[in-house]
Write a structure and sequence with these properties.
There is one protein chain. By secondary structure, this protein is α/β, with parallel strands linked by helices. The protein folds into 2 domains: about 1-110 and about 255-364, Isopropylmalate Dehydrogenase, CATH 3.40.718; about 120-240 and about 250-255, Isopropylmalate Dehydrogenase (3-Layer(aba) Sandwich), CATH 3.40.718. Helices cover about 40% and strands about 20% of the residues. The chain contains 12 helices and 14 strands. The strands form 3 sheets. Strands 2-1-3-12-11-4-5-10-8-9 form a 10-stranded mixed beta sheet, sandwiched between helices. Strands 6-7 form a two-stranded antiparallel ribbon. The longest helix has 18 residues, at about 15-30. The radius of gyration is 20 Å and the shape is globular. The structure holds 3-isopropylmalic acid and magnesium ion (MG). 3-isopropylmalic acid binds near residues 75, 89, 244, 275 and 277. 3-isopropylmalic acid (IPM) binds near residues 89 and 277.
Length: about 375
């Protein structure tokens, strides 16, 4: 059956990296006998410029009907206004909420060829394989009341319902069962009631997974441990805001923010996007790293279409291109071959066929 994919390129480097990811997706689908149909719509600042709103209702509805959604990035100084309803980021939140993709998976695993690209020492990061499981449709990002009151105060609400914590915790434990069976739940339970509640519920869910080891860690300590000894983590389970921050931090273990993909899943649909932003400073220069978005497409094949074979083919091609020394600016230490965004995409496409016969790890 034909798979229907909605593509939102977005702002800044979004269209450049999405352009390459689409090429890779089309080629991989062709190789795997998958029938694809892609439709593209503006989102974020690009949509504000045309329609005056960050995401048209009609496009959100289209996304809800699709089999999966691919997104580049949104935002930029041009749309940096105080009114939240007309900020590009609003579209992203509306999409995540609308698609009910409450579980955001952000894997951080350094590619062997890039061990030297990290700002951290090679022996600190060499065995790193972390999966951040970030709650994505609740917490302080969505809590009410929120607002700015008459120039006197600004406020947001951190709130989690039992069922929201239960379902994200279950996802984390299910994923841990496929990995090293270790969950570190990250919170601020020494000060926040929401976190105390979170901890209790996570413990309850853990009771159903006797094979999984559960630790609890305060977020400040976790931020430090990710840099000090990242090898100790397997699955990091955390809320929306802590997950946002810790996943950016974890990305640096892999050498660049430009390497980290993400899959946002719920009970049905998936939304796939790189974890990086729109990087307006380098937009249009052809220097952005498309690998995070290409790896997000690999996650789409795995989580939305159950095609681990094709996802492995893409992962293999990424590994190969890096082993061959090809480097976009962000991961270029001067010893490799410098390539543009487009060249990186093309070189990955070329290597898809070559890796097809090898099977990857199939890891989450
Ligand atoms: C991310 C981004 C978004 C977030 C922004 C752009 C709203 O930082 O996906 O990590 O905070 O979730
Ligand atoms: Mg972020």
């Amino acid at each position: 059956m034909k798979k229907h994919i909605i593509v939102f390129p977005g702002d800044g480097i979004g269209p450049e990296v999405v352009g390459q990811a689409k090429k890779v997706l089309v080629k991989a689908a062709e190789m795997g006998g998958m029938d694809l149909d892609m439709q593209e719509f503006p989102i974020g600042g690009a949509s504000i410029d045309i329609y005056g709103v960050p995401l048209k209702d009609e496009y959100l509805k289209a996304a809800k009907r699709a089999d999966a959604v691919l997104l580049g990035a949104v935002g930029g100084p041009k749309w940096d206004v105080v009114e939240p309803s007309i900020r590009p980021e609003k579209a992203l939140l509306a999409l995540r909420k609308g698609l009910k993709t409450y579980a955001n998976l952000r894997p951080a695993r350094p590619y062997p060829a890039l061990l030297k690209a990290s700002t951290l020492k090679e022996d600190v990061i060499k065995d790193v394989d972390i999966l951040v499981v970030r709650e994505l449709t609740g917490g302080i990002y969505f809590g009410r009341p929120r607002g700015i009151k008459e120039g006197k105060k600004g406020y947001n609400t951190l709130v989690y319902a039992r069922k929201e914590i239960e379902r994200i915790a279950k996802k984390a434990f299910d994923l841990a069962m496929l990995r090293k069976r270790h969950v570190t739940s990250v919170d601020k339970a020494n000060i926040l009631e929401t976190s105390m509640f979170w901890r209790e519920i996570v413990k309850g869910v853990a009771a159903g997974y006797p094979e999984v080891r559960l630790d609890h860690m305060y977020v400040d300590n976790c931020a430090m441990q990710i840099i000090r000894a990242p090898g100790q983590f397997d699955v990091i389970l955390t809320d929306n805001m802590f997950g946002d921050i810790l996943s950016d931090e974890a990305s640096m273990l892999t050498g660049s923010l430009g390497m980290l993909p993400s899959a946002s899943i719920g009970d049905r649909k998936g939304l796939f996007e790189p974890i990086h932003g729109s990087a307006p400073d380098i937009a249009g220069k052809g220097v952005a790293n498309p690998i995070a978005t290409i790896a997000s497409v690999a996650m789409m094949l795995k989580y939305s279409f159950n095609r681990v074979d094709l996802s492995d083919v893409i992962e293999g091609a990424i590994e190969r291109v890096l082993e061959d020394g090809l480097r976009t600016k962000d991961i270029d230490d001067g010893t490799g071959i410098s390539v543009s965004t487009e060249q990186m995409g093309e070189e990955i496409v070329k290597r898809l066929g070559r890796t097809a016969s090898q099977t990857g790890s199939g890891k989450v």
